[in-house]
Amino acid sequence: MSDAELPPAPRLPTRETRPARSTRERTLSRDAILDVAMGIVDAEGLDALTMRSVAHVLRTGQASLYAYVTSKEELIELLIDRVIGEIRFGGEPDPDRWQDQVKEAARQIRAVYARHGDLARASFARVPLGENALRGSEWIIGVMRAGGLPDDVVALGVDLIALYANAIAYEESIYLAEGATPEQIAAYAEEMGRYFAALPVDRFPNIVAMAGPLTAGEGDSRFEFGLEVLVRGLAAMAAG
Amino acid sequence: MSDAELPPAPRLPTRETRPARSTRERTLSRDAILDVAMGIVDAEGLDALTMRSVAHVLRTGQASLYAYVTSKEELIELLIDRVIGEIRFGGEPDPDRWQDQVKEAARQIRAVYARHGDLARASFARVPLGENALRGSEWIIGVMRAGGLPDDVVALGVDLIALYANAIAYEESIYLAEGATPEQIAAYAEEMGRYFAALPVDRFPNIVAMAGPLTAGEGDSRFEFGLEVLVRGLAAMAAG
DNA sequence: TCTAACAAGGGAACACTGTTCCTGTCAAGT
DNA sequence: ACTTGACAGGAACAGTGTTCCCTTGTTAGA
Questions:
Q1: What is the pLDDT of residues B37-50, one digit of tens each?
Q2: Taking the CB of the first residue and of the last residue of chain B, which one, N or C, has fewer CB atoms within 10 A?
Q3: What SS3 class is residue A67?
């Protein structure tokens, strides 16, 4: 679409709807829809989230959902902010521990997405501007500033950390959410290792030599490594 | 899908198909399909890439495409490897310049995706194991090893750099590929700045204070900042 | 009390997707 | 000259998000 405009203004949604028809018992609401949608994503993944599947669980037709949610796009955005809202950011910013606190925030982002299927892959495409996302940014920025990082480093740094946590969550969600057990993932890594080792040595000498290390680290250590790199890099940037 | 297995073995595809029917002029082939598909992605974006749209340009039916490509999934993978193949990696690894060389590789990845609509968003979900991707990995690993980084740092580092370049390319492709002009993006950033500045100061003191820096940097400087952070962080990891 | 207005609910249809079935067709091999 | 077999592609299938528009329960007004 070439006439697509960038989103006009970030709204904090407040639309309220009263139940009208129902002889009680049947109360459709935005929250009910979100609950069901979240359940579907958790249990079956993002691909299973269709307007039909949501409507079916609520024993209604798809059309009814559009009274509470303007599009599937909006529904997903609401889900994302809800998930971000689950994050519990630590206490007061501590100038001596900004590195640990930043890491902890990133860990929380990763963890919270890990609990919700492959929702992370949807979050990646959207700039999270919901209430909860703002709260999170506010906290991380506070931590970095308290740590004495210059404002321009903080501005780009918070963006970078968020990008990293999201990207990792996205990548990991691809395998995890669609039925791949940890065993399968380990087996896949092993197979990759053998594949690398078996490549033609003359063309891929380094990959062959590194077949081991390349397929060694599992998820956690990989994530922590990147975190450490980022934090050390940010510290170096602050130093000049 | 819970019975979905991880991809079995990474194949370097070599299926060859000879033209049979044609009275010349009408020669369907895998390459012709890829050319057309690439053209569609470049011009109209990934969403416009449909088996129907490809078939239409080739003046044929969708079904015919499946003789050369087993699925749309495979078609996209082939496109991605083709794009990665456009990257020209620099010359010999230079021990004194590994940081610059790694940066340059990342820049190339970003640049090449920027030339091809929002294809980056598809690449993100897949582990690129095509011939060309391997060549790229081989080169970057060589550079890092020549630079004296320990093997475990190299292994995770190359992964991290690739993740970063891909993630940035993905993010940027979202806006760029769907008709948003640089002016619109700048306008959007400005609007964001005003939005941040107008937030309630008591709840978001840091965001309000940082409204300027947060929405300041445009694409290039943002990308370069992250690159610098990563490279410095990797250097620090190597130091211990 | 009866009625009119309203708004939520939802069935059905629309336009689209990726994929497969199955028949027609043409070029080469015998 | 005739069979063979791979390519081509129309049509159909099972999905998707979204919209149209009629039904129906509730409420306000006469």
A1: 999 999 989 989 99
A2: C
A3: coil
